[in-house]
Amino acid sequence: MSMTDISRQLTIRTVEGGPYKGFNPTVALSAKLAILVLVVSLVGFPTAAATFTETLRDMTISLFASWYVHLLGVFVVVCILLALHPASARIKMGRHGDIPEHSTQSWLAMMFCAGIGVGILVFSVSEPISHYSSNPDILAGTVPAASAETFGSAMRFTFLHWGFSAWGCYAVIGMALGLACHTHGQPLTMRSALVPLFGRVMEGPLGHLVDIISILAIVAGITTTIVLGLEQICSGLSALTGSPFFADNAGNPPLIALLTALVVAIGVAISSILSGVDRGVKWISNAGVIAAFGMLLVFLIVMSDRRLPGILVDGTWTYLKTLPAQMFTVYGDDTSPIAGAQAGWQNDWTVFYWAWWIAFAPFVGMFLARISRGRTLREFILGAMIGPTAMCFIWFSVIGGSALLLEADGTAGGRIIAAPHAFRIYETIALMFDGPWAILMNVAVAVLFLLLIVASSTAAIIAIKSIGAAGGTLSETPTHSLVWALAIAAISGAVMSVGGVQSVRDVMIVAAVPFSGIMALMLVSALRLIWVGSRPRRGGAVRT
Known about the structure:
Elements: H1 3-7, H2 25-44, H3 46-84, H4 104-116, H5 119-122, H6 126-133, H7 136-140, H8 151-162, H9 164-183, H10 195-198, H11 205-241, H12 255-274, H13 277-303, H14 307-326, H15 337-370, H16 377-408, H17 415-418, H18 424-432, H19 435-468, H20 478-534
C-alpha cells in the first residue's frame, strides 16, 4: 500500500439528522444492543449466567493466558527497540511543522492521570501486602514469606503489573492512532489504526466491527474499575460506621450496599458529564489527582521513614533485572505442585491485570494520541512509558511500602495481612492515625474513590461516544452521555448481581480477548507506518 493510499481519509457513514446525528448508527446501536442482551441474560438467568461466565473464564485462561503474557511482553520489547532506533527521533506524530500543543510537564501529567484510574488506589496496599505473603518467589522457596527480606520480591511483582507492560500496552494504541490520524489525516477512531493494513475496507463492516469491539472492551474495563471502587467505598463506610449494611462479618460488601453506592456514583458521573467537559469533567479529574497526591504526601509525612526510599530503589532494581525473563514467563509448564501454585497466582494476578490493561487500552490510548500531536515517536514512547511508570512505582512504594513496614516491624501484628482485600488500606490508616485523624483519612479515601470512579467513567463515556461518532465532534451531546452512563450502570449492577466482584473480573478477562487480537494488528500497522515514515526520499530527506 502506497503513502497516498494510507493518507486517503476514510469516509465513514454518519447520520445527518435525528437523535443519532453525527453518529455511525451501526456502531452506536450495535454496541448498545450487545450490552442490552448481556444485561437481560444476566438478570433473567443468573444461575445459568454465573455458570456460563465461570466456564468461559476457565476456557479463556486455559487458551489465552500465555497469549496475554507474550503479547504484552512483545509490546514492551518493540516499544523499547523503537525508542532506541535513530529514526524514531525524526518521525513525528503530526504533519511537517506541527508543534506540541501542551508543555512537556502538562503532557506527562495528563498521561499519568489518563491511565491510573481507581486501580492505583484499590491495590495500593492490598497488592504489596498480598505479594508479601505469597508470590512465585515465595512459592519456589527462593525468598521467605512475610519478612523484611521479602520487600524486594513483593514490590517487583507489584511493579511488574503497573510498570512497562501496562504503559507499553497504551503506547502501542497511542502511536498507531497518532501516526494514522495526526500524520496521515485519518479520523480519530479505533478503525483508523488499521488503515495501513486494510485500506478503505475499514469503511465497511470490518471497520464497524473493530469499533464495536473497542467500545465493548472499554465497557468491560470501566465496569471492572467501577465495581472494584464501589467495593472499597462500602468497606470505607463500614470502617467509619460499623454498620453491617456496608459489609458483613467477613468484610464483604453485600449486593444492596454495592448497588446503592453504584447509584450514587453514576449520579455524580452524570452530573459531571452534563455540566460539560470544561467544567464538571475537568474539575472532577483535577480534584481526584490533587487528592491522590495529597494522600501520598500525608503518608510520607506521617511515616517519615528513611526505609521508604530503600523500598523504592530495591523494588525498582529487582524489577528491572528480572523483567526480561519475567515478562515472558508462563508458569505451569510442568506438573509439579510448585508450578501449579505459581500458575494459579499468575492467573489471579498477572492474567487479570493484562486483561484489564487491554480493556482499558482503547480509551487511554486514544487519549494519549489526542494530546500528543507534534511529538516525535521517541518522545511519545518514552513519555508514555517512563514517566507514568516512575509515578506508579513511587505511589506503591510509599502507600504499600508503609503497610509493609508496619507489618515487618510488628506494629501491625498481622492485622493488615489478615484484613479482607478491600479493608487493607483502611486497616493501614487505623494503624497510622488516631481518633479524629483516622476518621478524616477514612472519609478522604472514600471520597477519593468516588472522584476516581467518576473521572474514569466520564473519560470512558467520552471515548465511547467519539468512537461511535467516527471520531467526529458531534458526539458531545447530553442525551448520549446519559444513555451510556445508564448502560454502564446496568451492566455493572447485572454482573454484580450474578456473582459479586469476582464475576466482574471473570467477564473482563473474557471480554479482553477480541480486542487483544485487534491490538496485535495495530502493532503491525504502526510498524508499517514507521517503516514508511523512515524511508528516505530521493535526495536523502526523511518522510514525516
